[in-house]
């Protein structure tokens, strides 16, 4: 069976080049390296996707760090500290009443 197949492949004009032992070894090596090896192409694709995801996370966190640094610089001023405390924590001065007005409408 294999003998007949190899004779048919060898009789084809391109078949004798395909059936060459060096070509066959190269094809087996290429398949091994692309799909079966621990450092295969498929594994590299997965790792590259993880690297891209981590780089986008890194950029996001770096931008958040910059925002926080600007906020810290603003809060070094005592007037800004007071404004921040009033807005975020609803703090008030003595003898002062704060009214919090909330909207009834629900945004979809």
Verbal overview:
The protein is mainly α and 108 residues long. It is 70% helix and 0% strand. It contains 5 helices and no strands. The protein has helices at 2-11, 15-18, 21-36, 41-74, 78-89. The longest helix is centred in the middle third of the chain and has 34 residues, at 41-74. It is rod-shaped and about 105 Å long. The chain starts with a helix and ends in a 19-residue tail after the last helix.
Give the key terms.
0% strand; 108 residues; single chain; mainly alpha; 5 helices
Summarize the structure.
This protein has 108 residues and is an all-alpha fold. The chain has five helices and no strands.
Low-pLDDT runs: none
Q: What is the total tally of β strands?
A: 0
Order of helices and strands: HHHHH
Q: In terms of structural class, how would the helical and strand content be classed?
A: mainly alpha
What fraction of the residues are assigned to beta strands by DSSP? under 5%
Main beta-sheet annotation: none
Cα gyration radius (Å): 35 Å
The shape is: rod-shaped
How far do the termini sit from each other?
71 Å
Overall pLDDT? 83
Total count of helical runs of at least 4 residues: 5
Please bin the fraction of helical residues: over 70%
